[in-house]
Amino acid sequence: MTASSTPGEAFSLVWPCWSLRNPTPVAQEIRAAMVGTMRGLVPLAACAALLPLAQGIDCNNWSMRYKKFLDGVCVCNSTVACDTFPNDYQKLSSGEAGVYRTTRDGERFHYETATFVAGSPADADLTIDASTTYQTIIGFGGAFTDAAAINVYKMDDTIQDMILDAYYSANGIQYTTGRIPISSTDFSTNIYSYDATVDDFDMRDFSIAVDKTSATHKLELIHRVLDMTQRNLSIFASSWAPPVWMTKENSTLNCHLKGNPGEEYWKALALYYSKFITAYENEGISIWAMTTQNEPAEPLIKLNAWQSLRFTTKTERDFIKKDLGPRMKADHPDLKLIIMDDNKINLLNWLAALEDDDAAQYVDGVGIHWYSDADFPLGLGGSFSDLTTFHNKYPDVFMLGTEACEGYIPDWVFTSTGAGVKLGDFNIGWWRAHNYAKDIINDLTNYVSGWTDWNLVLDTNGGPNWAKNFVDAPILVDEANGNEIYKQPMYYVMGHFSKFLTPGSVRLKFTAASGSKSRLSDVDWTAFLTPEGQYVAILFNKGNGEETVKIMAPSGKLVQVVIRPTSIQTVVFNK
User: Fold this and answer.
1) What is the distance between the alpha carbons of residues 37 and 450, in angstroms, rounded to a whole number?
2) Catalytic residue among 107, 316, 403, 406
């Protein structure tokens, strides 16, 4: 295309690129008809150069590896650069709202503006009340697992930068939490600990040297993130299992610690955790918080074949008050301690540490996972209302989503999205994003202060994972060639929260008019005021119908937003 091309010529060139990038039903039909002749219209690599002609469309879904379109996926490689996040919300004028939209039909962070108009409360469908406030945001992010680091460093240097930019740069979704496993998890290539010397109760041989090696590159990855991010990153640590010599079973799989809290093995475990915090701080990485243990609750059926230290809420209570609490108070007085770190279904039965003053003095928060209920429409897991019940009982204890992922339920469970990676499956890709949006927004409206995804990056097999517990992640890498990544719909849903709800944002009362509740029954919503002085309203439409919503701002003015079917939208405007 040249500067003298006519509008018709421009469209004939841009349309193939547009159809590549948008898996809407219409685009799919036209694309199918055009694929045979598309090479005569425009080379695929040229689509990136024509990007500015297609307003709001910057997502390539042609995979060089698979030689096909991956519907619903944005592909970045050495030929086509990654789509970036439009930061126009930072330049809004008075009386203007920025609207970001991601839809099942293929829009990814589509940006447009809306104008406020005069109106009365009677005209509003939804009203933001800034005089009523709730919890404060800690942040949103993902975990620095061995698998994540291994996958990043499998890529060419340019692709590595693309991954980190997508998550942490100003042109990405700017994560603000990070989880670091203490030694290995199933998302490692082998089982290891930081002190394998039997009965080394004083931890003389403790070492995090493995995290510095090319086996994982984990420390190097975290340093790169910290050097890149413009926002504060709240990093918390979690252990899956202690060194094997501490366990009754002489195994770290579904294991139990020797002795009882207050005795030498439990004191050694507390010291082991403290040594980890110190070692990372010596590497220039500040640890904001740690959890007492990843998923400590005893499962009814022990299907898990990976590292898991098990104990009860009462054992956790005694461990905190006799060993872990005093140790951390002495060694790391500013460290936050998070209890439970397990599924929501356990929350109201995991209160022993908070019901004991000697233990409660050390507790700052509770960590929640989603695995008991996210994929099940029948509500078989812990309900969101349990979160509000917990908050009402312990208003000074924060709740934080500490782990979630998709692809963890077997394919034969018909209500789920299935097991492992389903790259390019348009319906499952959006369903998984739907589950993310539903869980996050309902967590937030029930006092949760943030949400941390599981692995930042996995390969297209859902690993590496020594236990073959393969799952999904928002970004996948081409492990075969090292030069292509796949940004799935889950990534974009995460961005609708992480990009805008900066740490310190405060949730506001956001209610529907009585006459609008029935019409908006398929829409979930929440609203916040950020430290930067912007109001942020997030609306998630689970239904197949389009809805027009009038939002009344605290200023008393109205802005009208069209909520597309099966979409998530973030509306931003200045205070």
Assistant:
1) 48
2) 403
CATH at residue 389: 3.20.20.80
The verdict on residue 85 lying in a domain is no
| Residue in 107, 295, 406, 484 annotated catalytic | 295
Instruction: List 558's β-bridge partners, or say none.
Output: 117, 552
User: CA 562 to CA 539: how far, in whole Å?
Assistant: 10
81-134 pLDDT per residue, tens: 899 998 999 999 999 999 999 999 999 999 999 999 998 999 999 999 999 999
Cross-strand pairs, 367: 340, 400
Question: Which two three-digit tokens encode residue 211?
Answer: 């995290």
Cα separation, 408 vs 416, whole angstroms? 9
pLDDT in tens, 119-173: 899 999 999 999 999 999 999 999 999 999 999 999 999 999 999 999 999 999 9
Do 48 and 59 lie in a common domain?
Answer: yes
Q: Are residues 522 and 459 in the same domain?
A: no
Query: DSSP secondary structure string, 153-190?
Result: TTS-HHHHHHHHHHHHSTTTT---EEEEEES--TTSSS
Task: Say yes or no: 397 and 520 in one domain.
Answer: no
Same domain, 267 and 388: yes
CATH code, domain with 558: 2.60.40.1180
355 is catalytic: no
Is 295 one of the annotated active-site residues of the chain?
yes
Going by pLDDT thresholds of 50, 70 and 90, the confidence category of residue 58 is: confident
Residue 382: band (very low, low, confident or very high) from pLDDT cuts 50, 70, 90 = low
Q: In whole angstroms, give the CA distance from residue 351 to residue 442.
A: 22
Q: Residue 50: pLDDT above 70?
A: no
Q: What type of residue sits at position 281?
A: E
Contact 443, 460 (CB under 8 A): no
